[in-house]
Write a structure and sequence with these properties.
Blueprint: E1 2-9, H1 17-30, E2 33-41, H2 52-63, E3 68-71, H3 81-93, E4 97-100, E5 105-106, E6 108-109, E7 112-113, H4 115-152, H5 167-173, H6 175-182, H7 187-194, H8 198-203
Parallel strand pairs: 1-2, 1-3, 3-4
Antiparallel strand pairs: 4-5, 6-7
Length: 208
């Protein structure tokens, strides 16, 4: 059984090591051969074409006769229901099973689409999308309350007017982004790969 692992975290401060270790241990117990690990730090709300690890994985599994794509939980595939279902559909078309470990779900059974697993995956993806929207709403509400409180107390917000990072500090902090700019990647491509805001990447052009 030839498999690949797909791991994802939403922010640059998180790490996907736990996902890799847990999935790797499970695959070894089952005697599955891990051919490649695809991992990235990117929002699960991104579109399919904006997630390089997904695009690379789909190409890889088609050309290397992979049997299964393993994820720890369905939200690692994405938190945008339509985009995640698009990935599942592409895998199903190629006869490649998606295995979701925490629910022991397999989208294919004996090479045929498992309708029960498909239904459960859709429901779980909808829940994940709702969670993402709820978190975003809470963050926006909290930010508005904090701003209102600061204004009421006369507290100035933001960086001091004199604050500015040195050129060397910018080059060090954004070395990867600058390297990608030199390679000719677009702002959106670099944003998808690194998670750095497009406005920030635009400011790095002078360091190429």
């Amino acid at each position: 059984m030839k498999v690949v692992l797909l791991c994802r975290v939403s922010t640059s401060t998180q790490d996907y090591d736990r996902q890799v270790k847990e999935l790797s241990a499970y695959c070894r117990q089952r005697g599955w051969s891990i051919e490649k690990i695809f991992a990235n730090k990117v929002s699960g709300a991104k579109k399919l074409e904006e997630r390089p690890e997904i695009v690379e994985m789909i190409d890889y599994v088609q050309t290397h006769e992979i049997d299964r794509v393993c994820v720890l939980e369905i939200s690692r595939l994405g938190r945008n229901t339509l985009e995640a279902l698009k990935v599942i559909h592409l895998l199903n078309e190629k006869g490649i099973c998606l295995f979701v470990k925490n629910y022991n779900l397999e989208t294919l059974s004996n090479g045929k689409i498992n309708p029960v697993a498909s239904l459960i995956c859709t429901i779980l993806l909808e829940v994940a999308q709702m969670e993402r929207l709820t978190i975003a709403e809470r963050m926006a509400s909290g930010r508005e309350q904090y701003i209102a409180k600061c204004r009421a107390e006369g507290i100035k917000m933001g960086r001091p007017a004199s604050y500015r990072k040195s050129n060397e500090a910018m080059k060090t902090q954004y070395a990867k982004e600058i390297s990608l700019l030199r390679k000719g990647l677009s702002l959106r491509q670099i944003n998808a790969i690194t998670g750095t805001a497009i406005m920030t990447i635009r400011k790095l052009y002078k360091y190429r």
